[in-house]
Amino acid sequence: MSNKPMPFQLAVAPGDAPLVAEALAVQACTEIMCGRRRAAARLDALRARLQDSLPHAAKPFDTGDWSVICAVIEAGGRPEIAIVPPSWDRWSGKGAIEIRIGGATWRSTGFEHDDRSPVLAEIRAYLDALSPMSG
Length: 135
Hints:
With 135 residues, this protein is α+β, with helices and mostly antiparallel strands. 42% of the residues lie in helices and 11% in strands. It folds into two domains: 14-54; 58-130, no CATH class. It has helices at 17-33, 37-51, 63-74, 118-130; strands spanning 80-84, 96-101, 104-107. A hairpin with a 2-residue loop joins strand 2 (96-101) and strand 3. The longest helix is centred in the first third of the chain and has 17 residues, at 17-33. The mean pLDDT is 91.
């Protein structure tokens, strides 16, 4: 028997998981800069446990953007997904992934995607799974 407090669970919306992982990484860096390496190691261990549940579909986007995209879709927004070429390279067929919902637009951080990129199907499937059922 022990007086030790029991561990608790924190429920994180799937769309927010990348945002939480990034926050843990930022705090770990702060701990290292302040000379608290043991605290940084604990934060890194927590982040590593969370990394396993991060969706691959989120990787092309800024974590804050992904969190908002998922929240808007969970609230009933319908996404339009397209590849948008950068202004300096209109001929290669590669570009950023753009998600439009209503009047809002978010773009991936890289321009290496094209219509055949496997991540496009993953993004569509993931966001479709978040959408409220209609009927």
